[in-house]
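Hello again,

I reread your note about wanting to compare the complex against the isolated chains. To keep things tidy I'm splitting this into two emails, and this first one only covers the full assembly. Below are the input lines as submitted, including protein chains and any nucleic acid or small-molecule components. They are followed by the predicted structure of everything together. The single-chain runs will come separately.
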Amino acid sequence: MEHVETIWITGATSGIGQALVERFVADGKRVAVTARSREKLEKLANGRNAVIPVQADVTDEEDVKRAYAEVRDALGVPDLVIANAGTHINMAASELDAKNCRKLMEVNLFGAITTLLAPLPDMLARGSGHLAGVGSLSSYRGLPLAAAYGATKAGLNNFLQSLRFDVETYGLSVTAINPGFVKTPLTDRNPYPMPMVISAERAAGYIADGLARRKMEIHFPPLFSWSCKLLRILPYPVYHALVRRITGSRNRRG
Ligand SMILES: NC(=O)c1ccc[n+]([C@@H]2O[C@H](COP(=O)([O-])OP(=O)(O)OC[C@H]3O[C@@H](n4cnc5c(N)ncnc54)[C@H](OP(=O)(O)O)[C@@H]3O)[C@@H](O)[C@H]2O)c1
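Full-complex prediction:
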């Protein structure tokens, strides 16, 4: 019998996650979908056999472990796990607040790590599996208004890069997914223009194709992401002056 690929994805009920679920289902895969809102999960599944709703809050370790056990009961140990749940709070200097910074860390960094570690022992024992985390191009270097968000995504990228060394000898793959601007409810509240913004469906296309090739890093849209990679290797003072000019941050006071 042909093997049907099984996937567990968090942050599945909106934006990039939701578009990915639809792409996976169209490709004939079975997907366990996680988010906090049970109602949105049921709406997404819509009675489809290929979509299994598993409610959880990724900031709660016990909840994530319970959710993973449900996923394993439904699908077996999944072939692919995508830690996609994330959030963003734009914080100008006067709005920087330790509680909000911690909240972003809890969801974007610890939530992703907790999700990826839940299936790890089973994948190590089986000798196969693919772990992916959704970072951001903002992880590459500091950016205005992104002190907390960028730090969560930089942390996640470093975690994934290091994890790859440790698990590849067991036959596991690890992928860091770093999107540019994608139009979703999360970015609809951004107070600034978003260069080279793409749809969630296009983002899902880049991600699904890159995951199928088990790429180490999936970054897009290409013109924007390669420009960010070039900016990354500039000497720090040149980078700082250039980004200040491009974003107009020199004139901004929050
Ligand atoms: N959009 C972009 O331009 C962009 C760019 C780079 C990176 N990213 C990253 O891509 C990922 C998806 O972003 P998006 O734009 O698609 O966001 P979105 O439309 O706001 O969707 C976020 C999803 O995460 C879920 N979620 C949030 N907090 C959660 C929690 N504590 N536990 C479980 N689920 C939770 C939400 O459902 P519930 O509220 O029901 O829990 C929802 O399904 C995020 O990691 C984001 O940082 C986005």
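For quick reference: Residues 10-17, 35-37, 40, 57-59, 84-88, 107-108, 111, 134, 136, 179, 181-182, 184-187 surround NAP (CB under 6 Å).

B.
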